[in-house]
Amino acid sequence: MARHNRSTKEAKHRRKKSRRGPPTNQDSFRALWDWFLPAGIFAKLVCHGNTKWLPTHLVVLAFYWTWSDARCLTDAFVGASEVARSLFELPVIHTYQGFMRALVTWSPTLMRLLTGLVRQRMEEIGGRWWRIDGWVPIAFDGSRSTAPRTRSNEAAYCAANHGKGTTAKYRKKKTKGMRRKQNAKNKPQPPAPQMWMTLMWHMGLRLPWAWRLGPSDASERDDAMAMVACEDFPEKTLFCGDAGFIGYPLWSAMMKGGHDFLVRAGANVYLQVETEKGRVVKEGRDQIVVCWPKDAQRAGLPPLRLRLIHTRIHQTKVWLLTSVLERTQLTRSQSVRLYQFRWGIELEFRGLKQTLDRAELRCRTADRARVELDWSILGMAVAELFALREQMSTRASRKKRDVPAKRSLAGTMRALRWCMRNRNEAVESGTSLSDRLRDAVIDEYERPSSKRARYRPQNPDKKPLGDPKLRVLTTKEKQKLRKIEAKEAG
Questions:
Q1: DSSP 3-state assignment of 90?
Q2: Main-chain phi, psi angles of 100, to 5 degrees
Q3: E strand or H helix at 294, and its extent?
Q4: Edge-to-edge, what's the strand order for the sheet holding 316-322?
Q5: Given this model, what pLDDT does residue 391 score?
Q6: How many domains does the chain have?
Q7: Is residue 487 domain-resident?
C-alpha cells in the first residue's frame, strides 16, 4: 500500500495547461468540478501501490457513466472514459471490468465523503430554501428498482418468504374462483429480483440527502430509523413522512436525536388521551395526545407526548401528527404546507426511474447492481445540484420564491449530455453549459386539459386510510405516567 500525494497530483491534473483560442464546453465542466470537488478532499485515501488512477478520476468517470444515455453499460463507460480522458489529459481506467471492480471496492468510502460534500454544497447555495419556516425539512419514502433475473441478484434481493405473507394469502383467497387450475406444464415464474431504496430528501432544495438500499422485502421504517441514527442532520431538522412511517421506535429515535417529525396518521395509529373530554379531535382543531404502547410500558420506556392536528388538504380530511407541541413553532397552516412539499419525493423517484432509466438495472451481479443504483442516485443529486447552483447565481433567480420547484431534471440531463457530446466545441454566447443549466426549468404554459391518465386501475389492496384510534389512559397507566414525570422532574 502506498499513499499518493493527492493534493499535488489533483492540483496538477485537474486543470489543463493554458491554451489558445476560445473556451470550450470542457472548460465549463472543469469549472463545475473545481467548485464541487475541492483540492485535497481525497488526500487521506490510501490506494494500492500499483494504482495509476486518482480517486478524482474514478469519481468523475462514475458521474459521467451514470449521466450517459447509452442503454448498454459498456457503451456508457466508453463514452464516459472519452470525456474524462479529455478532461484530465491523463489515461483513466481503461476497461469496464476494471472500472466496476474499482467502484465495488471504493464505493463505501467514496459515498460517505461525497454525500457529506453534497450536503455542504447544499447549505452553501441553499439560501432561503435551506430552511422553511425555520426548519430543515427532510422527507423520506421508499421505492423499488428491478434487477436482472440472475442467481446472484435473486439470492440477494428476492424475498425469501414470497407468497407466504398475509397480503399474498388474501389475494389468493379473493381471486380463488378466477384463478387457473394447477398446470404443471406452465408453472408461474418466480418473482423478479427487486432492490428496495429508502430515500431521505431535502424538501426545500428538492435534492437527495441520504438513502439506503436493501432486498425487496426490506422495511422502510427500519431503514429510516437506521439513517436517523447514523447520518448527520442540522439543528432543527423536521422529518416528514406519509402514513407508513409510524411507530414508537421510529418516533422515539427521531426525538432522542434532538429532531422533530410530522407524519400523517391513519387507522394504523393507536394513541391515548388523559381526559375523557379530549377523545375526539374536531376538524380545524388540534390536541395533545400520548403514544405509549404496551411494549414500551413493559420495557419501562417513557411515553411520547405529541400533537394531533385535524385539518383538510384540498378536499381530503387528514390527521397530521407532530412532535412539535408549541403551536407558535409549527402552526396548522405551516404543517399543511410542509406536508404538501413532501409530495416532491415521488417526482424524484420518477426522475430516477424514467429520466435516468433506472427502473430496471443492468448489472447482473448483486454487488455491481448495488453500485449501479448507488451512483445513479448520487449522480442525479450532483446533476441537480449543478443546475440549482447556476439557476440561483443570477439576481433575478434569487428573488423568485420557487427556483428549486421550477428545476427540470430532464432539462438538466439534456444540457449535461449535450456538452459531453460536444465537449471540444467552442462556446458561443448563450450556449455554454452554465447557460443551458440555467435554462433547465419546467414549462410554464397552461395546459388545456389535465395530465391525469384516462385509465387508472384500482389497487385492490389500497384501503381508505381511516382515522387514528384514540382511547383514554387507564388508572394504572396514569399512575405510571405520574411516577415517570416525577422522576424526570426530580
A1: coil
A2: -70, -40
A3: helix 294-298
A4: 207-214, 194-202, 136-146, 237-241, 260-265, 316-322, 304-313, 286-291, 270-273, 469-472
A5: 92
A6: 1
A7: no
Evaluate whether 271 touches 288 at the Cβ level (below 8 Å). Answer: no
268: cell is 394504523
Residue indicated by cell numbers 422485502: 217
Inside any domain, residue 154: no
Whole-angstrom distance, CA of residue 313 vs CA of residue 76: 44
Catalogue the long-range contacts made by 414-422 (C-beta closer than 8 Å, 24 or more residues apart). 414/440, 415/387, 415/439, 415/440, 416/67, 416/383, 416/386, 417/67, 417/68, 417/69, 419/25, 419/28, 419/29, 420/64, 420/67, 420/68, 420/79, 420/83, 422/25
Sequence-ordered list of residues with C-beta below 8 angstroms from that of 234, at least 6 positions apart, any chain: 123, 136
Q: Tell me the sheet residues that pair with 270.
A: 469
**Dist. CA 400–CA 41, nearest whole Å:** 33
Identify the CA nearest to 238 among candidates 254, 219, 227.
254
Instruction: Please spell the DSSP secondary structure of 433-449, one letter per residue.
Output: HHHHHHT-B---PPPSS
The answer for residues whose C-beta is within 8 angstroms of residue 339's C-beta and 6 or more apart is 240, 262, 264, 313, 318, 320
Chain centroid to Cα 270, Å, comes to 28
Kindly report, residue by residue over 142-174, the tens digit of the pLDDT.
999 999 999 999 999 998 876 666 666 656 555
Coil vs helix vs strand at 307: strand
What would the grid cell of residue 183 be? 398446470
Per-residue cell: 356: 435516468
Quick check: 208 and 199 in contact, CB under 8 A? yes
Contact 40, 55 (CB under 8 A): no
Instruction: Answer for the pair 167, 383: CB distance below 8 angstroms, yes or no.
Output: no
For cell 493527492, name the residue: 6
Confidence class of residue 182 from pLDDT cuts 50, 70 and 90? low
Which structural domain, as residue segments, surrounds residue 418? 6-128+389-438
Tell me how far apart the alpha carbons of residues 97 and 319 are, in angstroms, rounded to a whole number: 52
99-113, 119-133, 447-461, 465-479: least confidently modelled range: 447-461
d(CA 68, CA 83): 11
Name the residue type at position 483. Answer: K
Determine, yes or no, domain membership for 406.
Answer: yes
For CA atoms 35, 400, 127, 380, give the dihedral sign. negative
Contacts of 20 (CB under 8 A, 6+ apart): none
Q: Write the single-letter amino acid at 54.
A: L
DSSP string, 366-430: HHHHHHHHHHHHHHHHHHHHHHHHHHTSSHHHHH-S-HHHHB-HHHHHHHHHHHHHTTTSBPPTT
